[in-house]
Amino acid sequence: MERLDRRDFLRGMAGLGGAALLTGCGAESGLKAAGASTGATGRPVHYPGQVGAEPDHLVIAEWPGYEAGGTKAQTYGLTAGRAYTRRFGASGLTYADYGNDDKNLNKMRAGERFDLLHPCVDYVQDYVDAGLVEPFETDLLPSFDRLYPQFADRGSLNGRQYWIPWDWGFGSVMYRKDKVAEADARGWELMWNERYAGKISMWDGGSTPVMVAGLLTDPPAQDIFHQTSDELERSRQLLIQQKPLNKFYWTSEYGDMQPAFKSGDIWITYAWPADYKAMGDALGYDKVAYMTPSQGKLAWVCGFMMGKGTQSPLHAHAYVESFISLAASANLVNLFAYGSSNASVTPAMVKDGRLARELDIGNPEAFGPPVHVERHIPNRAEYQEVWAEVKAS
User: Is 283 strand, coil or helix?
Assistant: First the structure.
């Protein structure tokens, strides 16, 4: 099957207009240029044998809500993964809460192992450099050639495909329009507005709050993904100032953030498009807004990696294929209002064109500056240290 080139990618996105949920990258976003590939130096990888000869058990570090369709853990309506559970059953799948990228990376560095994990693109190099993952054999993934190359290329290091993209979207501020003055809702500084003390909840997102703070320091960080020591100190101080304004730092969008937003305990929070859809559906879109900050949204692309030493690589490939297939990708778009890495998702498959238009999704101009497409942080340990110090302050 022929891969889409860059021109096809952009022409397809423009043709989708506001009807398809494609978010997080674009012609001028720097997504492809920021790839961490170090050249085609690795040998092709091959996983021989038959899937029936492998252990039929996979331990998967996954974001809540992304569990495979057909499992008891999946309670949100996601059908992605159902092709796997229909073929192999659901009893062999065990899920661990991914938490966030920093937490999972540190757990695996400390010795915890998973057959599959679901990191975002800015952590791919961290996992590879730490020797925690195995490459994929893309010939075992029939849908791989339908993935946008701008995404897939970011998972190729040393000539091997370590990461398979699936979902992407924005990170921004979600707030109650009926509680927050319109004049206050212009940028990320709303999270620092003392007028709303006790009604704010920042995500306990490791490096992410440090990136956000870097947009607001005086002067702003030159590069929020590679802040200098002085810039990190300014971000730390700014986050310490923000800390007492929070009702709490949220750790689970379904476990604490969404319930608190829905009940009115918080009015302002860091959120993703799926949260906006869920809260808009629950409270009414006349009461809920998803901000386009003056400083720019964050944008992320996430996908699958295979854990080092897995005894079930063929099962792992079958599982990933059951997510990146066309049917599974269309379900992702419609259920969570996230973009899919599968280029075969068409406008006719998207049910809520109004939401797509409101989020300006599908417009290539929406993916360039000032959107900040997340990429590898060379000094990530320093970011983690800053966030730990903020929480301990």
Answer: helix
Question: What are the CA-CA distances from residue 172 to residues 63, 189, 289, 350 (Å)?
Answer: 18, 11, 10, 23
Least confident of 7-21, 108-122, 310-324: 7-21
Handedness of CA 169, 328, 136, 158 (dihedral sign): negative
Instruction: Residues 170-297+377-392: name the CATH superfamily.
Output: Periplasmic binding protein-like II (3.40.190.10)
State the DSSP H helix or E strand holding residue 273, giving kind and residue range, or none if neither.
helix 273-283
Say what the pLDDT of residue 10 is.
Answer: 34
Helix (H, G, I), strand (E, B) or coil at 153: helix
Look at residues 147, 84, 107 and name the one whose alpha carbon lies nearest to residue 318. Answer: 84
Q: Collect contacts of 63-68 with beta carbons under 8 A, ≥24 apart.
A: 63/98, 63/118, 63/302, 64/97, 64/98, 64/252, 64/253, 64/254, 64/255, 65/253, 65/254, 65/274, 65/336, 66/118, 67/93, 67/95, 68/93, 68/319, 68/322, 68/323
Cβ contacts of 329 within 8 Å, gap of 6 or more: 80, 166, 323, 340, 341, 342, 344, 345
- The label of the residue with tokens 């809540």 reads 64
Taking 90 as the threshold, does the pLDDT of residue 37 lie above it?
Answer: no
> What is the percent of the chain where pLDDT is above 70?
87
Q: What is the residue extent of each domain of the chain? A: 6-168+299-353, 170-297+377-392
Question: Which token pair is 377?
Answer: 């942080």
Closest among 319, 368, 380 to 30, alpha carbons compared: 368
Q: Say if residues 296 and 101 touch (Cβ distance below 8 Å).
A: no
- Beta strands at 298-307 and 339-340: parallel, antiparallel or unpaired: unpaired
Looking at the structure, give the CATH architecture of the domain made up of residues 6-168+299-353: 3-Layer(aba) Sandwich (3.40)
User: Based on the number of CB atoms within 10 Å of its own CB, is 383 exposed (0-12), middle (13-18) or buried (19 or more)?
Assistant: buried
Same CATH topology for 6-168+299-353 and 170-297+377-392? yes
Q: What does the alpha-carbon distance between residue 159 and residue 41 come to, in Å, rounded to a whole number?
A: 5
Strand partners, 330: none
Both structure tokens of 338: 């996230």
Mean pLDDT (the chain, rounded): 88
**Is residue 2 over pLDDT 90?**
no
